[in-house]
Amino acid sequence: MVHVPEDKIVEGGILCHLAQRDLMLSDSDNTATNFLIDFIGFAKMAAWFEAEFAHLHLGRYLMEVTDRENYLSAETALELLERLLADPSPFGQVCQKVLFYQESVNKLLQDLPEGCSYSKTGELEDTEHDAARIFAGDSYYDICFMSHYTGLEEREQILLAQNAVGKLAYQDLTGK
Fold first, then answer.
1. Are 73 and 41 in contact (CB under 8 A)?
2. What are phi and psi of 132, to 5 degrees?
């Protein structure tokens, strides 16, 4: 439990809509990430990412408006997802639970039943990303769908494509 100062709360998480500021960091992944970047140190965190992951660059805080940018490849996103889902530690188990109960399911998970996936989604005004493990029994697919669009019509097509990919993966796993 931490007190999050008003000037540290960013859009994109539930924390920006609540009056109470003494909350678990899990209430907003963007605010929590920025808090941890400050705690560890921006330069130290950016250097660690560069050393550990070939295609991950921390150039700015999350949701920060600046000319600097963050970069992540689909390959690295899947590597992070796989590492997290294989982590047996208490931290890993908490993170796995958060990914299992993801509330944003309008992309890869749109038409899938509850309880068949772990996922992390992200969006900006011109971006729709989703990384998920979709499973049935002991079989699964790890999928990362990263996209950039230039208008609402393109965005709509991207979401439909993400929905279709998730549905196809689940149908293949279940034979339905």
1. no
2. -150, 150
User: In Å, how far from its chain's centre is CA 147?
Assistant: 14
- Lowest model confidence (mean pLDDT) among 22-31, 59-68, 148-157: 22-31
Distance separating alpha carbons of residues 78 and 71, to the nearest angstrom: 14
Strands of 20-116 (E only): list them: 22-23, 56-57, 71-72
CB 112 within 8 A of CB 167: yes
Query: Tens digits of per-residue pLDDT, 39-70?
Result: 899 999 999 999 999 899 999 998 888 999 99
Does the structure show a pLDDT above 90 at 80? yes
Which segments within the chain are labelled E, that is strand?
Answer: 2-3, 22-23, 56-57, 71-72, 117-124, 127-136, 139-148
